[in-house]
Amino acid sequence: MEIKELPDFRNEQKVMHKDNNLELLEYVVAVANKFHPSFDGFDIYPSNDPMTFNNRYIENTLDLRGRYDRKRSMGGFEDCGWEEYEKNYSDRGVLDTSFLDKYLDKQLQNTIMSYGLDVSKFWYLLLYVNDYVKDTCVNAHEEGDTPLLDEVNEMNEKLSEATEVIFKKDGKETFSTDRQATVDILKIAMLHFINDYNNIIENPDENVSERLKEIGLDDVIRNSYSWSLHESVTIDISYRQYKFAEMMLYFLKDKKGITPPNVREKVYKEKNFFVSMLLYVVGLYSEDEETAKNKWYEPYYNDKTNRNLSLLVARYKNREFPHSVPQIYT
Questions:
Q1: Cα torsion at 223, 38, 91, 224 (round to 10°)?
Q2: What are the residue ranges spanned by the domains of the chain?
Q3: What values do phi and psi take at 302, rounded to 5?
Q4: What is the pLDDT of residue 91?
Q5: Dihedral sign computed on CA atoms, order 73, 77, 80, 86
């Protein structure tokens, strides 16, 4: 079975979203629009993920310098030199395609075809879902409750009404004062900060970074302009399994497996079993003793797969998880 090669669409966004049905990325578009549509603060648009995925696939054969040069040729990173790119973007990794041989397993191919699916389109969907889950769950930034500047504005509002100020360290009070003159100085300092910042942002020029640096805000604002980010986090593998299954089961929800004619090998037409096979193919399974003992992730050896994946999906379906900010699929 041969996988059709994905062409390089570069920045042709209009082509990517024409009728939401790009030939080889048709399945990717359908899932990306459901789970990660684009949002400009006012309206929701077709997802940019198919374009991002296409770029990552094409760049998979390039080294870091080649990826940088390609992005520059497409009009990206115009203000980012090579040294800065090498320092800040070298850890983003490449698209994982290492499981192609497992994907081409005859039994799995027969199962894919039993659902009437195109094996090339489904290959790119599998790559995308695995890449998206990894990006949002492995070494991602956990989103804080409140963007930094919103919190600062709220603090300024409360400070303007305050008659006492208390400082704490590790939950223990280290300083407090209700002296009006001291409280007023803090109010004036905060107002000065906000006025200076607003003046810079509302009247931008080529020296914005330097002007922010002069008041000590360049790094703070650069790192927290859109999000209040905590340290990078890696979310438990069981949730990554659930997220992968959720996206795949959504794609399969209106499809039914039917054994193709003249196929003698076993075909896994049950959807949970099918998705469990895919979890095994991409290597998204635990190595802990309990899981290794049950081997529920290996459909070739265990008929409890359907029940176990159902339990996994049910366990996490209505559970709240940390909201993470992806580094690649932004």
A1: 10
A2: 13-61+96-143+233-325, 148-226
A3: -140, 125
A4: 61
A5: negative
